[in-house]
Amino acid sequence: MSTAPDKLTRTERKDLTRASLIQAALDLMGEGRSFTSLGIREIAREAGMVPNAFYRHFRNTDELGLALVEEVGISLRRLLREARQGGVAPAERVRTSVQVYCNYVKQNRLLFLFISSERGGGSRILRLAIRNEVRHFTNEMAQDFRSIGAYPDMPTAMLQTVCGLIVNTMLAAAPEMLDLPPEQPLLEAEMVDTFVQQLQIVLLGAGVWRVGGGG
Description:
This protein is mainly α. 73% of the residues lie in helices and 0% in strands. The protein contains 9 helices and no strands.
């Protein structure tokens, strides 16, 4: 009788091996290691593979890191776009988006430990990749704001600045979320309320801003 892995196609087996290497790197970081300190041999060993298996999927650790950045960017942009366009009342849109984001951070703790660490240090290649994802995120948010009629008179460049501030506020909040003690709903609710208020202040300020007026 065939086992489940025997039924996988070659592409599926390749994807599974690739995912195992990515998870191995995340698990090592979950033990307190920085991404830049990880070596190919130990990542492969953690995944239960020989080092040569690593090179079938990634040329080096930076390329594995780029895959992690891409994974966060694509999935999080999709989730938040769904939250913004999901028929939620405008008054609840910010809180809904914050809840979606907080849940994603909690469910992907190791990924965000990686993003928070590499965003301000580590490999230049990864710093640039994270900045590029922030730009994608910012541009998509600005497009969504246009589609729902938010700030219709605001110049595109200013709208992108507002969205960039929102995205950077979200990223800055991630470490605090990661440091929350488990099973502390009151602390989490307080943090969510503060996060919502920060974004509401940004949006309120954007609504009264006049280009060239300085506020």
